[in-house]
Amino acid sequence: MAVVLLHGNPETPVIWDPLKAELGRTDVHTPQLPGFGCAVPNGFGATKEEYALWLVAELEPIVYEHGPVDFVGHDWGGGIGMRAVSMRPHLFRTWACDVLGLFHPDYVWHDFAQIWQTPAVGEQFFVDTGAIAVPDRVNMYVSMGMTPEVAADVVAAGNDEMNRCVLALYRSAIQPAMAVWGNDAEAAAARPGLVIINTEDHFVGATTMGYDMAARMGAHVELQEGLGHWWMLQDPERGAAVLQQFWATL
Q1: End-to-end CA distance of the chain
Q2: What are 209-227's pLDDT values in tens digits?
Q3: Environment class of residue 161 by beta-carbon count within 10 Å: exposed (0-12), middle (13-18) or buried (19+)?
């Protein structure tokens, strides 16, 4: 089997480097979301549906060679990943997700998302952000929980194409779009699941939403006290241990 780690917004696969080192495996794959520091396929509109289909296409050759994967999705990587699990459960041995609250019918998008979802306002956000000096942008991400090295990579990857993809992705997910995806979430119960809930992650809704969705999907819950959105950077040793313990039970 192989492990697949999928990043989110506004990230690149570099966010997984510390966790990969702790896992100490040679079969870890870290696909890169189209537009997030890399090119997009011709005609790619960057909607959540297109990203879900892209992920299925990325997984198929891995599964053909290694069998169903152990998938870990963070941020939009988790949202896209859970949709892929619901659509093609046979591609997965297990799944882990740190944003399951997004699928809850009561979830309200966080403030940044609502800015990006608003025409003209979202575009102006990226104009204003681009005018901020690079060191200040790096420090902003560090203050939110990234390491300086990862924050610098994320800032360097940001460009007009990433901005376009962020706007298109979030605008395709205006509620009730995520709740509609959540209506199909039980299909993911066909595979063993792990819901990672970080008490200091304020982007994913109330902790109770994660627990409610986990119950609907028959998944195990790992509550990580004191960790935030970028738990894999804040405590990669703990994150690796949580995943290894989950996989060892199967």
Answers
A1: 13
A2: 999 999 999 999 999 999 9
A3: middle
